[in-house]
């Protein structure tokens, strides 16, 4: 462990607490000069550390994603399973590339501060600017060869992500839009994509690759997104490392339960589509009607204008009528 890491871990253990240079030096058994140099290096790396004469140093946070912080907050339980990128094309692409080159039998996390080619469902671009969002992908080994309910994985991940967001933003009312979006009011704040990796030798589904994009704090959204997307917070968000670890652990602790009726019940409860008029696009066809329910396999139930009851296990809600 470097002196820089040792100082950081001391500060992270008691954020907002003042540490004198002497105390830090004594705790990690180095000189005060070494502590000072470590503090300067941490500040240069983006850690916000307040310095005050006669009081010492106080840790305030870090707007940047930082591997040491992620490892600290996760109790160093996943040190080899976390990959951090300052800039990448897409964490989803990085996860797929890693999977193609390695044998993976446990969850892996790929997280980026910024993406140049982030994408969501149907290959659509996902706006991924620096500092204001959280963009990550997970490799999740398939816990079951029963694929009859595999559509429930996306709905379950949406529930798990929303649970964590509610803990970090308790004043926000997060809702779910079938099948993979998280909303505040009438605008999207998060998107989820679930892809599969096949084992060609056994012709079985070996892994899921789950991508999540969050709009955390104010960003200059392109004009094409301003009417449909927004940030979760009106202020800069400085706890991305803690939030990332909370999301990672929540998902890997519970994704194996994706077929659980409890997760589906929670999804239904958080859905804002039930009872609303919507337009659903599937291929070249467009359907209009009222959402009457979500079936046990995660499919959307729609009552059309001519009172037909239709069920969709794929498609996209292109319009929600809020009035």
Automatic annotation (TrEMBL):
<dbReference type="GO" id="GO:0003677">
    <property type="term" value="F:DNA binding"/>
</dbReference>
<keyword id="KW-0092">Biotin</keyword>
<dbReference type="InterPro" id="IPR003142">
    <property type="entry name" value="BPL_C"/>
</dbReference>
<dbReference type="Pfam" id="PF02237">
    <property type="entry name" value="BPL_C"/>
</dbReference>
<feature type="domain" description="BPL/LPL catalytic">
    <location>
        <begin position="76"/>
        <end position="259"/>
    </location>
</feature>
<comment type="similarity">
    <text>Belongs to the biotin--protein ligase family.</text>
</comment>
<feature type="binding site">
    <location>
        <position position="115"/>
    </location>
    <ligand>
        <name>biotin</name>
    </ligand>
</feature>
<keyword id="KW-0804">Transcription</keyword>
<dbReference type="GO" id="GO:0016740">
    <property type="term" value="F:transferase activity"/>
</dbReference>
<dbReference type="Pfam" id="PF03099">
    <property type="entry name" value="BPL_LplA_LipB"/>
</dbReference>
<dbReference type="InterPro" id="IPR004408">
    <property type="entry name" value="Biotin_CoA_COase_ligase"/>
</dbReference>
<keyword id="KW-0805">Transcription regulation</keyword>
<keyword id="KW-0678">Repressor</keyword>
<keyword id="KW-0547">Nucleotide-binding</keyword>
<dbReference type="GO" id="GO:0006355">
    <property type="term" value="P:regulation of DNA-templated transcription"/>
</dbReference>
<dbReference type="GO" id="GO:0005524">
    <property type="term" value="F:ATP binding"/>
</dbReference>
<dbReference type="GO" id="GO:0005737">
    <property type="term" value="C:cytoplasm"/>
</dbReference>
<dbReference type="InterPro" id="IPR013196">
    <property type="entry name" value="HTH_11"/>
</dbReference>
<dbReference type="InterPro" id="IPR036390">
    <property type="entry name" value="WH_DNA-bd_sf"/>
</dbReference>
<dbReference type="InterPro" id="IPR045864">
    <property type="entry name" value="aa-tRNA-synth_II/BPL/LPL"/>
</dbReference>
<dbReference type="InterPro" id="IPR036388">
    <property type="entry name" value="WH-like_DNA-bd_sf"/>
</dbReference>
<keyword id="KW-0238">DNA-binding</keyword>
<protein>
    <recommendedName>
        <fullName>Bifunctional ligase/repressor BirA</fullName>
        <ecNumber>6.3.4.15</ecNumber>
    </recommendedName>
</protein>
<comment type="function">
    <text>Acts both as a biotin--[acetyl-CoA-carboxylase] ligase and a repressor.</text>
</comment>
<dbReference type="GO" id="GO:0009249">
    <property type="term" value="P:protein lipoylation"/>
</dbReference>
<keyword id="KW-0067">ATP-binding</keyword>
<keyword id="KW-0436">Ligase</keyword>
<dbReference type="InterPro" id="IPR004143">
    <property type="entry name" value="BPL_LPL_catalytic"/>
</dbReference>
<feature type="binding site">
    <location>
        <position position="188"/>
    </location>
    <ligand>
        <name>biotin</name>
    </ligand>
</feature>
<dbReference type="InterPro" id="IPR030855">
    <property type="entry name" value="Bifunct_BirA"/>
</dbReference>
<feature type="DNA-binding region" description="H-T-H motif">
    <location>
        <begin position="21"/>
        <end position="40"/>
    </location>
</feature>
<dbReference type="Pfam" id="PF08279">
    <property type="entry name" value="HTH_11"/>
</dbReference>
<dbReference type="GO" id="GO:0004077">
    <property type="term" value="F:biotin--[biotin carboxyl-carrier protein] ligase activity"/>
</dbReference>
């Amino acid at each position: 462990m470097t002196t820089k890491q040792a100082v950081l871990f001391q500060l992270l253990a008691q954020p907002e607490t003042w540490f004198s240079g002497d105390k830090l030096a004594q705790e990690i058994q180095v000189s005060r000069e070494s502590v000072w140099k470590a503090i300067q290096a941490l500040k240069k790396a983006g850690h916000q550390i307040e310095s005050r004469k006669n009081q010492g140093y106080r840790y305030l946070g870090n707007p940047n994603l930082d591997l040491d912080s992620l490892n600290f907050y996760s109790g160093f339980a996943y040190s080899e399973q976390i990959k951090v990128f300052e800039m990448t094309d897409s964490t989803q692409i990085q996860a797929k590339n890693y999977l193609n080159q390695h044998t993976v039998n446990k969850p892996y996390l790929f997280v980026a501060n910024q993406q140049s080619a982030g994408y969501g469902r149907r290959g659509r671009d996902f706006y991924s600017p620096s500092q204001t969002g959280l963009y990550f992908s997970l490799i999740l080994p398939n816990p079951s060869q029963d694929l009859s309910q595999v559509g429930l994985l996306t709905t379950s991940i949406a529930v798990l992500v929303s649970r964590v967001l509610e803990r970090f933003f308790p004043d926000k009312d997060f809702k779910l839009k079938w099948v993979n979006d998280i909303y505040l009011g009438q605008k999207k704040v998060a998107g989820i994509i679930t892809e599969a990796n096949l084992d060609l030798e056994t012709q079985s589904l070996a892994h899921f690759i789950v991508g999540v994009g969050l709009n955390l704090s104010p960003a200059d959204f392109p004009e094409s997104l301003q009417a449909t997307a927004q940030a979760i917070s009106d202020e800069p968000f400085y706890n991305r490392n803690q939030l990332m670890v909370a999301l990672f652990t929540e998902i890997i602790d519970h994704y194996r339960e994706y077929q659980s009726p409890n997760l589906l019940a929670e999804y239904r409860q958080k859905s804002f589509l039930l009872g609303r008029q919507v337009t659903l696009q599937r291929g070249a066809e467009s359907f209009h009607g009222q959402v009457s329910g979500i079936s046990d396999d995660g499919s959307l139930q729609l009552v059309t204008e001519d009172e037909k009851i239709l069920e969709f296990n794929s498609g996209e809600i292109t319009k929600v009528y809020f009035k």
